[in-house]
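Discussion board: Methods & Data

I've been asked by a reviewer to show the raw model output for two of the constructs in my manuscript, not just the figures. I'm not sure how much to include, so I'm pasting the format here to get opinions. Each protein appears as its amino acid sequence followed by a line of discrete structure tokens. Is this the kind of thing reviewers expect to see in a supplement, or should I convert it first? Here is construct A:
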Amino acid sequence: MRDRLVEFARVRDWGRYHTPKNLAMALSVEASELVEIFQWLTPEESARITADPERAQHVREEVADVLAYLLQFCATLDIDPLTALADKIDRNEKRFPPPDIPATAGR
């Protein structure tokens, strides 16, 4: 997908606009548009949002926009997003070990 997005931008000569700064800003805007969908919903309403096909489509489109800008950002800086995520999970597993759970818990 990252390569497809890079090619999409290349054939449209958008590369000059795809600087890390611009892509980070666009990513922030798209993430805000996703947040806006949920802004005034209750937790229960937000959990049911995909029950409405029109709203579900809107959420999918905003998710796609966020992911597209993130992948383009990663391509520009030569970051492998899955490696970055795996590294972050490794760090967080060390920083936030699971709580000690007594052996009798859940019985």
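Construct B, same format:
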Amino acid sequence: MFWLVALPAADGREYVYRVYAPAEALRADVFWAAFHCHDEGPHPRASDRFDAAEIRRHALIEQR
């Protein structure tokens, strides 16, 4: 299971992060995981407003 988190940044772009977490994970925890990943990188400052982020849950599909 993974989550996609889109964070709007100061440069007008939206940065998308994949966060691996269980389906029952709290959206706030998923958001902060993506935010801290972005904050540690070389990109411009992202918004730390939870309601500005787009968060979607996806299931992993195994290929055989």
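Answer (T.O., handling editor elsewhere):
This is acceptable in a supplement if you add a one-line summary per construct. For B, something like: Residues 27-39 form the longest helix (13 residues).
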